[in-house]
């Protein structure tokens, strides 16, 4: 692979420029900004590789970029997404979110770690392979969607309508990944599911003077009281029946988790905290993070939150809540349990808006694609990767992989300080080029 690596080195400036161009293009799924334009950029880049590429329309959603390249060997599906999180709060960015900037060997921009860096690095790796190694030893199949950051709400219908294009892949390289806090490369073979909701409460027809709080119901208090029933002060989720559906992880997943190094002090320092919830530590912390569900208040909004004081009784209140799911908790079940829990406590007036969900997914850690990824990582990073049975995060892997019988493994160009979903999102350029090399080695290992 010497010629491959030399090609990457010789084209490093151009490769970074391509990533900057992609990161400069806004593609905010939550706000419907720039999705089609970004999809066209990805499609055009695939075509420049020589791939057959097109946009597949999804009714009510963002188009999916589908591409194919190669005519021999096993089929490797590559899943990425071109949408990004909203950049807010804007004032916390050192430089504007969609004006990519390089500082101290790092590239800063919204989506550069999640997921445009991985998307572009993999495309450039294929270019380098074709330029230096000849024909591909694998058949590549790209699925690049534009709604991952809002729960991939239309991916299930895309899969149902296009199963003929998708079935039969021998493995899938999933979208995400990074080095851990101790700089070890990580591979993951699954992820948690999710159910995302908004809870809304309405009171008076308009905001009122706060002196009327003696007799007029306050939606903000109503929402706080409802939220307080979802978790107790010991962090135990108290949604009726929720924990009853948690399946114990399989023994092989537990065995893999027990091999995961856990740099507790370094992780706390990275997060800027003194301890984890309830002082959990060691194996218990790893187990909880990987195998237990969550109930998280992601955002709250009600009344006046600007500078200074404004004595107001708000007319409405809203909370955004996500539930991270593990087997056998599925999105529809979690939504039903939440509704029934609130109703039993008299909160029938609280509206639940379903913002989408995804089932949990898990692939074997010894699948052919996972073993090929291990070999590739060992070569590129000069050390064995840390293998996780699943992420603590979520994504639509169930629809695209588990449902179709396709094993998956995930790796990427992020690191513990990438600030994914936060201001000043970034990647280190050295990690970016490592991921290009990883992709090249994966093609070689999987093709063999």
Would you write up a description of this structure?
The chain has 448 residues and is α+β, with helices and mostly antiparallel strands. It folds into two domains: 2-192 and 360-447, Aminopeptidase; 194-246 and 292-358, Alpha-Beta Plaits (2-Layer Sandwich). Helices cover 34% and strands 20% of the residues. It has 14 helices and 19 strands. The protein has helices at 2-10, 12-24, 35-49, 112-132, 155-161, 163-166, 219-227, 251-257, 264-271, 282-291, 331-344, 368-381, 397-400, 429-447; strands at 52-56, 64-69, 75-81, 101-103, 106-108, 139-145, 171-174, 186-188, 190-191, 193-202, 208-209, 296-302, 312-313, 316-325, 351-358, 361-362, 386-388, 408-410, 426-428. The strands form six sheets. It has a six-stranded mixed sheet with strand order 1-2-6-3-7-18, covered by helices on one side. A four-stranded antiparallel sheet has the order 12-14-10-15. A three-stranded antiparallel sheet has the order 4-5-19. Helix 2 packs antiparallel against helix 4 (112-132), helix 4 (112-132) crosses helix 14 (429-447) and helix 12 (368-381) crosses helix 14.
Question: What's the arrangement of secondary structure elements?
Answer:
Elements (H helix, E strand, L loop, with lengths): L1 H9 L1 H13 L10 H15 L2 E5 L7 E6 L5 E7 L19 E3 L2 E3 L3 H21 L6 E7 L9 H7 L1 H4 L4 E4 L11 E3 L1 E2 L1 E10 L5 E2 L9 H9 L23 H7 L6 H8 L10 H10 L4 E7 L9 E2 L2 E10 L5 H14 L6 E8 L2 E2 L5 H14 L4 E3 L8 H4 L7 E3 L15 E3 H19 L1
Parallel strand pairs: 3-6, 3-7, 7-18, 8-17
Antiparallel strand pairs: 1-2, 2-6, 4-5, 5-19, 9-16, 10-14, 10-15, 11-13, 12-14
């Amino acid at each position: 692979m010497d010629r491959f690596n030399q090609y990457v080195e010789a084209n490093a400036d151009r490769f970074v420029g391509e990533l900057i161009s992609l990161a400069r293009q806004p593609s905010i799924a939550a706000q419907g900004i720039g999705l089609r334009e970004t999809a066209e950029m990805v499609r055009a880049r695939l075509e420049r590789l020589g791939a057959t590429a097109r946009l597949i329309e999804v009714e009510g959603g963002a188009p999916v970029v589908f591409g194919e390249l190669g005519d021999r060997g096993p089929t490797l599906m590559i899943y990425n997404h071109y949408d990004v999180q909203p950049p807010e709060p804007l004032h916390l960015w050192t430089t504007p979110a969609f004006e990519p900037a390089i500082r101290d060997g790092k590239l800063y921009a919204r989506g550069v770690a999640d997921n445009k860096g991985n998307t572009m690095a993999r495309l450039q790796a294929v270019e380098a392979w074709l330029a230096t190694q000849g024909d591909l030893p694998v058949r590549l199949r790209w699925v690049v969607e534009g709604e991952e950051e809002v729960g991939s709400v239309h991916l299930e219908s895309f899969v149902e309508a296009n199963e003929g294009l998708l079935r039969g892949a021998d493995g899938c390289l999933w979208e995400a990944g990074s080095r851990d806090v101790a700089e070890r490369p990580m591979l993951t073979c699954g992820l948690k599911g999710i159910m995302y909701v908004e809870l809304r409460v309405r009171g008076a027809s308009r905001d009122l003077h706060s002196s009327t709080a003696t007799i007029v119901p306050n939606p903000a208090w109503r929402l706080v009281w409802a939220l307080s029933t979802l978790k107790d002060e010991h962090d135990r989720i108290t949604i009726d029946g929720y924990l009853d559906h948690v399946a114990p992880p399989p023994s092989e997943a537990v065995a893999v988790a027990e091999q995961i190094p856990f740099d507790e002090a370094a992780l706390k320092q990275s997060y800027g905290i003194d301890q984890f919830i309830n002082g959990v530590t060691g194996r218990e912390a790893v187990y909880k993070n990987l195998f237990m569900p969550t109930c998280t208040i992601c955002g709250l909004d009600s009344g006046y939150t600007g500078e200074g004081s404004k004595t107001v009784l708000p007319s409405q209140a809203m909370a955004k809540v996500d539930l991270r799911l593990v087997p056998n908790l599925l999105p529809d079940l979690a939504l039903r349990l939440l509704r029934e829990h609130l109703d039993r406590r008299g909160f029938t007036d609280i509206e639940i808006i379903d913002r989408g969900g995804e089932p949990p997914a898990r692939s074997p850690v010894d699948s052919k694609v996972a073993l090929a990824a291990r070999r590739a990582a060992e070569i590129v990073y000069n050390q064995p990767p840390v293998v996780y049975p699943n992420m603590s995060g979520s994504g639509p892997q169930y629809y695209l992989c588990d449902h179709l019988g396709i094993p998956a493994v995930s790796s990427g160009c992020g690191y513990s300080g990438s600030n994914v979903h936060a201001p000043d999102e970034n990647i280190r350029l050295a990690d970016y080029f490592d991921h290009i090399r990883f992709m090249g080695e994966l093609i070689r290992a999987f093709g063999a």
